[in-house]
Amino acid sequence: MRFIHISDLHIGKKLKEKSLIDDQKYILDQIIRIAEEQKVDAMLIAGDVFDDGNSTTVDAVTLLDDFLTAVSKKGIAIYMVSGNHDSMDRLEFGSRLFTENKIFISSTFKGKPESFEMRKGDEVVNICLMPFVKPVHIREFCPDVSSSYDEALRTVFAGIQLDKSRKNILVTHQYVVSGTEMPKICDSERKYIGGEEAISASIFDGFDYVALGHIHSSQSIGRETVRYCGAPLKYSGSENETDKSVTIIDTSDDLEITEIPLVPLRDIRIIKGPLDKLIECGRSDTEGRDDYVFAILDNEEMDAMAKLRAVYPNTLSINVRGGGDDDVIFDVEADLEEIDMMGEFEKFFKNKTGEDMTDSQKRIVKGIMEKTGVI
Hints:
Layout: E1 2-6, E2 14-15, E3 18-19, H1 21-37, E4 42-46, H2 58-73, E5 77-81, H3 88-92, H4 95-99, E6 103-106, E7 114-120, E8 123-130, H5 135-139, H6 149-158, E9 167-173, E10 176-177, H7 187-190, E11 199-200, E12 209-213, E13 219-221, E14 223-228, E15 245-250, E16 256-261, E17 268-273, H8 275-284, E18 292-297, H9 304-309, E19 315-320, H10 341-353, H11 359-372
Parallel strand pairs: 1-4, 4-5, 5-6, 8-9, 9-12, 10-11, 12-14, 17-18, 18-19
Antiparallel strand pairs: 1-15, 2-3, 7-8, 13-14, 15-16
Helix pairs in contact: 1-2
């Protein structure tokens, strides 16, 4: 059997308030064409389907609906899990109806990974779906589970018995590492991962292939068959030189993995230099004129944004170079301050009551924040 592995679609995402819906539709249509050309039997979608599941726009919902419908009409089964960006309830809505069309969605943790059999001729592949979870979600089923992500996930997978006479595939969305080996990350996901969320790839040793989401660069971790496929589009300035692709898995005989490149509607580019030189280059840059541009100028200039947008209409930000080439932050997400929600609540509590929170109160509030996805 052949599978196509994708993740981190982040449908509805914006770059500096610039909607990417057209870019996402273009790349999803390309993914459908690749799936058809590669004659895949199923699509594995490893989470972060929406960019913000709690405030998803009509355009984003419509785009996902069109995408799933088009894939299903090609006779391609879909196995999808939720990620940390997704609303569990929203993604699972209509899942029973989807199942009738071979669209299998695991959005909420139900005590163990959901398991499905896929058959083609004499070949049987077992596909397990494990949505993004925190220890607090697992604790609802295992009250004594550790607060460590690694230990909590290890507890869940320790109880799974796999049939080794067939191929076993896991689709999940977690921050997976291997010993001291950490995945390469970029700025678009940096604020959503951390050391305490890390789990070991060894937890999944029983699976022939692990389809991971969460990291935006395609790469393997620990072994070739534990794999992040990466996001299909560049979602930060730091990804400007990162190639995007989808992963094809062939389970016939020995498991074979192939990457198929993706070509975006508009690329992300970093341009540097004096404003007049950048404008001069832009006038002759017919192929890259519509790309998303992050500009780093040598000096401050009056009306620089308006002048640059006259040749590069999708210029998203301008920064001025400091003392050297490396001291300018051009990350699209860099201006978003990471908020310590627990710390802010403690300050709010003291402002209202005049007292510091007790350890017991902190544990209660932190538990509520974790359960509701605030932290």
